[in-house]
Amino acid sequence: MTTLLSDLRYGLRTLATNPGFAVAAILSLALGVGANTAIFQLLDAVRMRTLPVSHPEQLAELRLTDTTWLRGSQQSWNPILTNPIWERIRDRPPEAFAGMFAWAEDDFNIAPSGEVRHAQGLWVSGEFFHVLGVQPRLGRLFAAADDHRGCGLPGAVVSYAFWQRELGGDLAAIGRKITLDYQPVEIIGVTSAGFSGLDVGQSFDVALPLCSQATLEDYSFLDSGTIWWLSIMGRLNPGWTLGRTTAELGSMSPGIFEATLPKEYPRENIKDYLRLKLAAYPAGTGISWLREQYQDPLWLLLATAGLVLLIACANLANLMLARASAREREMAVRLALGASRGRLIRQLMAESLLLAAIGAALGLVLSGALSRFMVAFLTTQGTTLSLDLHPDWRVIGFTGGVAILACLLFGLTPALRATRIAPGAAMKASGRGVTTTRQHFSLRRTLVATQVALSLVLLVGALLFSRSLHNLMTVKTGFQQDGILISYADMTRLKLPYERHAAFQQELLERLRAIPGVDAAAQVRFLPLGGNATENRIWKSGSDPRQSVNAYFNWVSDDYFKTLQTPFLAGRDFDTRDTATTPPVAIVNQAFARALGSGSNPVGSRFRREATPSDPAEMDFEIIGLVADTKYRNIRQDFVPIAFLSASQDARWNWSNQILIRSNVPIGDLTSRVREAIAGLNPEIGTEFEVFKTTIRDGLLRDRLMATVSGFFGLLAALLAVVGLYGVMSYMVVRRTNEIGIRMTLGAGRSEIVAMVMREAGALLSVGLGVGLLLSLAGAKAARALLFGLQPYDPLTLALAAALLAAVALAASFLPAKRAARLDPMAALRYE
Prior knowledge:
Number of helices: 24
Strand content: 15-25%
Largest sheet: 10 strands, mixed
């Protein structure tokens, strides 16, 4: 330890005498280590950390093994189950589980009136908190007795964060009432500070018992066997593995699904329902939509950041080699005085360790800012992410491991080379040192060629992601995105009679259309590119149902196509002729007409839609209009067959509160006018607003993240490679000063000297670009699934990346070449 401390003190003094080198090395390492740690920190928070509950490794989730032929309404991205299935499992629990619970996510409006304010909500069974081992901070949490049919609103449990934010951390909060969807609910408990829910990335605010769903919302999910909305988890008994639990669930599945077969299930799908099977899956890390969307991109970005660190280490190795040349006489004196080679290597490595440690410490600080930036980048107008970004042992260990690896990468080879020289040879050598040999210089050239190759890989990746994002943002969607405001009108408090909904909503539409500056307005069930969808089988009326094809459906009001400026190609729009008592009609897109085989003008044709849980009989529709193809669920999806149905003919019209408003009025003024118009109709209507184009852009967050971060890494890598090439060429000019003087004395012109230096740079660049192109072709395959409208081996991208890197590198090399051409021949001949 005494020797190590002595070496570290000596290393500090050495670095202090070379502040420029020390600062450049530490900043390079801080950027490389910080970028790697920031991305690993996100991966750790999203993928690796277990839930902050008691013994999370004992948790298991029950899911269906296959959801391909599932019918009904799926309320979540996560594979989920119905309440009748949960009640059957709750009443006859598998032997594998010591306790089980069900839960579902929702959002509640906590504003008593006016503009909507969202709170993240949970529906939970009575055993939820007990099985998880969550303790109350105040009051009490739910028990099994709180969750029973007809329970009403027995109370709410709020999270610690919500208690602090909305209730000011009031110790007297228990017994107070909060408004949830315009109904007062008493607070009975506050959870402990560490628990934020089971969905990683989303922090819950308010939890209610499952049985309260029938009271708080207009439509009860409790008896429905076709509304898939509950996640079911449990804590395994000691000795039970996931495999053994899955085997038990497999034997129980036939009885569960036979007992819960919904009466309204489509007859042709009953056999598929009865074949459903349950299995157990690990649940210690919870569930996470964020994980599903960003796990693969984050691993790819981590590999990219690793390449940046390699390039930085190659740069530092070059700098250390240059410093080793300058310290050869020092090393020779030490060797002559009896120091062993191993002792000198340890001393030089202590200096490298200091650089790595300081760089890693700064990188750890920088990683916090970078990871928070990426979380803020992923936060949208409707979603706020909640992630624990405090460094844990994995993050600290990862940073330490990266620092040690970096130390070995840039410090070991220069240390070995610096101590290889014989003392006698070093003492006799000229001032330039004996290690300025071809072998020594070849290593430096190899490092620069490696930097160029890796930089090209990163530039290719950056250009691929940037061009992919451009393709997504400019793809033809079939509708206009600019100048449209989305208004959400919450009519829950009005308690309108069912038969009044359609007329009231039509009156609301007319009021909005009458606002000065509004060009058109329409209501819609599924927002274009909103991610939600309904898909059914259809076939031409009178033909064999076995020749059916899949088609998507949407319900819209009149003027929907005018609002989005989707062109009509034939037929008419919905109007007053289309009512609940007239035969059903539909407007279809071109892809639907092609799939149905109705030719270029399907107006007048008829098609049938299969029976659904909500419409248990097949329905026949007449096509009254044809519109251009439009995107439906997401922007990456090709044009698919879509049938637009008239909202005024749908008995469930009361679900739609999404209104699209086209106007040239500035968004702020338009929002105020719309709010006033809605309040003028009825002040009890809750309102919320989003910008349509912003909503669509939020759907491209993953692509924007990849383009932004990979672009930053690509530019940083190119800069490091150019700096490395400039350093090597400058070193080469110094090393060959005598040779250049002789050449100029013998008649070589300045242009010939420049050409000689540029040929050297061109050779390094050519080797690096050649290897980089091969690596790019191999590495780009990993990004195939994240690209849109591009192949990983896109020739234009490869050529553009190579040309950009070559142009910048040659420009950097021209400076040493020009300096060489300006040398005084006589001074060069005397140079030592």
